[in-house]
Amino acid sequence: MADVAIRKPVLAGRLGGSATVRLTVAPAATRVALRAPAGSLAAISSALGLSVPTAPKTSGRAGARSVLWIGPDEWLVIDEDGADLMAALSGAGAVHSATDVSHRNIAIIVSGPGAETTLAAGCPQDLSLASFPVGAASRTIFGKAEIVLLRTAEDTFRVECWRSFSDFVFGLLAEAAEDAGH
After folding, report:
1. Alpha helix stretches (DSSP H) within the chain
2. How far is residue 81's CA from residue 86's CA, in Å, rounded to a whole number?
3. Hey, what long-range contacts does 57-62 have (CB within 8 A, 24 or more apart)?
4. SS3 43
5. How far apart are the two ends of the chain, measured CA to CA in Å?
6. In what order do the strands lie in the sheet with 97-100?
7. Which stretch of DSSP H or E encloses residue 156?
8. Average pLDDT of the chain?
9. 0.90 exceeded by the pTM?
10. pLDDT category, 26, cuts 50, 70, 90?
């Protein structure tokens, strides 16, 4: 019998939060870092089954799939059902660059009435509902780690970070959640 290494999911078993904030490690998802010129977006949107957003700080969603605007020609595509995004994009028939980053990233869901206050403890952006409405997405920092932030509901955010920063990000979120609970 061959020895088999079993990979433990990052942040497995981690819990955090307070009376006003819940921190949850999101289930595994497929993710693609996508770059494309404007002329390719119609074909890519068709291949993905949703409109690729073209305005800063926006996202598009269809079912379990989201596309987050990261820069003028850059998006993060997330499929929470684990669909093969690379296969979908390979049939787009348009110029683009797609890199599977599913194992690079992890997501933490920050929810509850204190979610905005919790994130404000380490994020310099104005996260008020007026400035960062539901569906808003941004590449930013939390503490000293780069994150991609998506507001999924009035009191819920998805924090995407690299696995190598996940312990730091989760720990800082947990501390901020405790403070927000007071």
Report:
1. 41-48, 85-90, 115-120, 163-180
2. 14
3. 57/132, 57/136, 57/137, 57/138, 58/135, 58/136, 58/137, 59/135, 59/136, 59/137, 59/150, 61/135
4. helix
5. 54
6. 59-62, 65-71, 74-79, 30-35, 97-100
7. strand 156-162
8. 94
9. yes
10. very high
**In which residue are the tokens 């119609």 written?**
42
**Residue 156 identity:** T
The pLDDT tens digits for 117-145 are 999 999 999 999 999 999 999 999 999 99
The dihedrals phi and psi of 40, each to the nearest 5 degrees, come to -95, -10
At which residue do the structure tokens 């696995």 appear? 163
Distances (CA, A) of 103 to 33, 82, 142: 12, 12, 20
pLDDT at residue 1 is higher than 70: no
Q: If you write DSSP's letter for every residue of 99-120 in order, what string do you get?
A: EE-TTTEEEEEEESTTHHHHHH
Q: Is 63 exposed, middle or buried (0-12, 13-18, 19+ CB in 10 A)?
A: exposed
The neighbour count for residue 12, using CB atoms within 10 Å, is 7
